[in-house]
Amino acid sequence: MPKLSQGDKAPDFTANDQNGQPVSLSDYKGKKVILYFYPKDDTPGCTAESCDFRDNYQSLLSQGFEVIGVSVDDEKSHKKFESKYQLPFTLIADTEHSIVEAYGVWVEKNMYGKKYMGTARTTFIINGDGIIDKVIEKVDTKNSSQQVLDLLA
């Protein structure tokens, strides 16, 4: 599936969060959502990105945003990641790869000449009507929340 872009309708999904509770994008109708896709729990870049969203979470909430992280890790891995770094937002376990595929971020990657499939670090800013307002493909993991705010300024 091709990667989604600005103006596209954000595909709805339902999957379990870090607490084993089903969460749907449609649960957030009427709210602005920062939906960020990251490769793996508790790795340096993903931790920096998630902790930046954590550190700026209240500021994002005050501007009407909800934050949702998505990776293909399972609920148990997400729970451990959430607890270790006190992450105050929802982490979706996309173990079936249905969400990463629907958003076009399940891609072929190349590390040291070895090709494999993985999640392209990407952030989607979705408005209250479920339309994608912005897509960030070159995510600055240490300043991901500021990157979002700068785009919307």
From TrEMBL:
Residues 15-24 have a biased composition (Polar residues). Residues 1-24 are annotated as: Disordered. It catalyses: a hydroperoxide + [thioredoxin]-dithiol = an alcohol + [thioredoxin]-disulfide + H2O. InterPro entries: AhpC/TSA, Peroxiredoxin_AhpC-typ, Peroxiredoxin_BCP/PrxQ, Thioredoxin-like_sf, Thioredoxin_domain. CDD domains: PRX_BCP. Pfam families: AhpC-TSA. The keyword Coiled coil does not apply. It comes from the Bacteria. The active site is at C46 (cysteine sulfenic acid (-soh) intermediate). GO terms for cellular component: cytoplasm. Gene3D superfamilies: Glutaredoxin. The keyword Hydrolase does not apply. Residues 4-153 form the Thioredoxin domain. One of its GO terms (molecular function) is thioredoxin peroxidase activity. Keywords: Antioxidant, Disulfide bond, Oxidoreductase, Peroxidase, Redox-active center. Its EC number is 1.11.1.24. One of its GO terms (biological process) is cell redox homeostasis. Thiol-specific peroxidase that catalyzes the reduction of hydrogen peroxide and organic hydroperoxides to water and alcohols, respectively. Plays a role in cell protection against oxidative stress by detoxifying peroxides and as sensor of hydrogen peroxide-mediated signaling events. Monomer. Belongs to the peroxiredoxin family. BCP/PrxQ subfamily. This is thioredoxin-dependent peroxiredoxin.
